[in-house]
Specification:
The protein is of the alpha/beta class and about 550 residues long. It has 21 helices and 16 strands. Helix 1 links the parallel strand 1 and strand 2.
Amino acid sequence: MTKPIFSIVVPTFQRRDTVADAVRAIAQIDYDGDVEVIVVVDGSTDGTAELLGTLALPFAFRVIVQANRGASSARNAGAAVARGDVLLFMDDDMMCAPDILRRHAESYDAGADAVLGDIPLDPASPPSLLLDGVSHWVRERSRKLAGGAPLRLFDLLTGQLSIRRDVFEAIGGFDGSFTRDGSFGNEDLDIGTRLLFRYRVVFNPRAVSRQRYVVTCRQHLRQWFQAGQADVEFARKHPARAAELFNEHSATKFVTRWLLMPLGRITPLARGLAWAALLAADSLWGKWHWLDRVVRRGFFIARAVLYWNGVASRGGIPGNSPVLVLCYHAIQDLSADRILSNYGIPPGQFARQLDDLAASGFVFIRPEELLAFLAGSAGLPRRAVLVTFDDCYEELLEIAGTVLRPRGIAAVAFAVTAIPSSTNEWDQRIGCTALPLLGEQGLRDLSCQGVEIGCHSRTHPELPRLSDEALEQETAGAAGDLQSACLPRPRFFAYPYGSVDARAARAVRAAGFAAGFGLRAKGVTRGDDPMVLPRIEILRRDTGLRLWLKTRVPRWAALIL
């Protein structure tokens, strides 16, 4: 049997004593090959790093300390410095058996690309009303998989998961957007989706690490709320798995649809139920056997409501709700320009608008999500919003770095590609201030900030007034300009002035664009012509009630305002 080099990577947060016991168990591993151990302390403030520094292991042992960025980031950080052929990821509550590496090595010798082990409960786990449920789930998982049942996505847990280094690198590691800033959920489902699609993943029941379950009831409820949020994010990234995912939580059952989901949409009620469940768990559980069943049942009902509250906080199960596409122009103060004053929104006002939308339950989506929605291959959460910018004024690069990126908001910016002066010449013809546009390097830098670059024509004319030859130049020619600037071929086109007719739409389609945007006061629906999608123009005067109307009832707003 070959003996691969193993790198054991353990992320930890605020579990000093538990992770220390886990490392002591690792120190007892019996393996003839080379081993290294890397513990990544993810922002712990409980003295974890100091305690780990006192431990001696018979293997190379390294402790990395980072700010709290979540388990995915911590695992990636450990993997980045690991030198092993195989990366074994274990949670900080896993007490491994001495032969665990030999068992994993057996599976790799038989041709595995990734290996899952058995994770029964550790008898030293502190008493909790959660233990019976966790133990039952783990036993059932082990029984089914050891009996030859096919490995399901939901069986892949990162509590004990090893992956060949080359495979880990090929799939891009863990997605840091899951468990971002220390939140909980779905980094295992995400990496499992990518593993199962291309590689051989096996379950080895003899590779054992016992989980010392130290999660409190309060922590458990918080995890389930965050799991609801993470499930929406997972469904948006992997729409083909969405139905399967939510059915794990009985989404199609009558009680769920007509009781638990509606209750979950009422945040004060969901939190109140959670508070009552915690109070009962702390004060009543363990006193009388007959009462334990009532307390446990009430706790799990509150947990389910809190899960659906987490789902609702991210816009609900992705479906067919309309998408709001917002159109911005300059993000700067243009109040000194009589004509353009309304088309420039100061950065502070813009940032507040985004924050207010997020606080009101709007969910910012990525451009590819809109395309998948239009194609019918994915749903979107309620109140989905796509942010777009016309013209690509120079300040947009700074805005992307200081406003959009810190908030995790993707966007599309439409560039005018062939203006000799690299300024807004189309506005200057009517007496407006000259405003600089981003050049080729600026557009490339903007793309690196996570803003997709689309086309806004070559010279900003009204397309319906052009000849067929000129139309081709302003559409296909603009796409070619961006490619010549070493940018990806653009997928999106925005009609200058929102002016579009059937000829212009055909030219945009013929140029190979996936979607074209005009300016109409309505949301994008799945049945819309992708070449003539509506956008809602946001101006400086759109504050307070005006902004509320434009983003909630855009058609009525167009009639009233």
